[in-house]
Write a structure and sequence with these properties.
single chain, alpha/beta, six-stranded mixed beta sheet, six-stranded parallel beta sheet, 9 helices, 12 strands, 19% strand, globular, binds 2'-monophosphoadenosine-5'-diphosphate
Length: 290
């Protein structure tokens, strides 16, 4: 590092568990970029956004709980980020601070590595922030989406907004799908023996994606493998959304496979240092930090 080093970072709270520094510092190093990426635990969001402006920070990731609150503090919003109502990436464009969302792109890229999306029947489990971003992505691909959630009203609202169908999590068994996505936190350690669905719903040839990455092989993905499904683990969306952030900041897409490998190594190290399985108490996020 020297006087020319560019600064990037992530703003969240809590943020000490974040894997974003692993994603971006590795990518900067491989690209030969004189840049550093730090984690900022932010309570006063307006002051933090002023900090971006005042210090000339080049780019910022935004995570829980600031993804929505930051909308009104930026100069402009990318169209999709505005529709989703959440920003996970901040970048400078022509002297203006602009908010983007790469979660939906990350999810689509993770899925598209294993399957074609156009016109497919997709069961989406969850109606929280992550599910919302994924649902907007699926809409762009003209998928037929069925949204299931524990709280039915949240599923109904999201489905109505996008012209999708909704149901309660308990009624999911009646559905047949090409693609199944878990965007709930069910299956996350320490409840890693749980799956959001009974195994019998999974069918050979189905594509099953889980956004939970701790553990990497969730019960849902294990069941999927046993039933002959194509499976996509939680590091894929995380790695891809980070790669899209790099593209926004630097105009260049980094090596996603290398990011994924960095993340996998960081997760293994984290477990071996703490000696405990990952859980909310020892600082692990409940779902992917995007
Ligand atoms: P994120 O930003 O990761 O999406 P979130 O917005 O808090 O986090 O959403 C969490 C999702 O996981 C929601 O869909 C939530 O269901 P509810 O809307 O009913 O709360 C779902 N979820 C969390 N714990 C769950 C559980 N034990 N069983 C079923 N769904 C659960």
């Amino acid at each position: 590092m020297n006087a020319a080093t560019e600064m990037y970072g992530v703003m969240g709270n809590p943020v000490r568990h974040s894997l974003s520094p692993v994603i971006h510092n590795g990518a900067f190093r491989r690209m030969g970029r004189n840049a550093v990426y730090l984690a900022f635990e932010v309570t006063d969001l307006a002051a933090a956004v002023n900090g971006i402006r005042g210090l000339g920070i080049r780019g910022m990731s935004v995570t829980i709980p600031h993804k929505t609150a930051i909308l009104s503090l930026l100069d402009e919003l990318d169209d999709v980020a505005a529709k989703i109502g959440a920003v996970n990436t901040v970048a400078w464009r022509d002297g203006k601070l602009v908010g983007y969302n790469t979660d939906w792109q990350g999810a689509l890229s993770a899925l598209e590595q294993k399957t074609v999306l156009q016109g497919k029947r997709v069961v989406l489990l969850g109606a929280g922030g992550a599910a919302r971003a994924i649902a907007f992505g699926l809409k762009q691909k003209e998928c037929r989406v069925f949204i299931f959630n524990r709280s039915l009203a949240k599923a109904a609202d999201l489905a109505a907004e996008l012209g999708f169908v909704h149901g309660s999590l308990a009624s999911v068994e009646t559905l047949d799908a090409d693609i199944l996505i878990n965007a709930t936190s069910v299956g996350m350690a320490p409840n890693d023996g749980e799956s959001p669905l009974p195994k019998k719903i999974l069918k050979p040839g189905m594509t099953v994606m889980d956004i939970v990455y701790s553990p990497l092989r969730t019960k849902l993905l294990q069941d999927g493998e046993e039933k002959g499904c194509r499976t996509i683990d939680g590091l894929e969306m995380l790695a891809h959304q980070g790669a899209f952030q790099e593209e926004i900041w630097l105009g260049r897409k980094p090596d996603v496979a290398a990011i994924r490998e960095d993340l996998r190594r960081a997760l293994i190290e984290k477990h071996s240092v703490s000696g405990d399985p990952p859980n909310a108490k020892n600082g692990f996020p409940l779902t992917a930090d995007r």
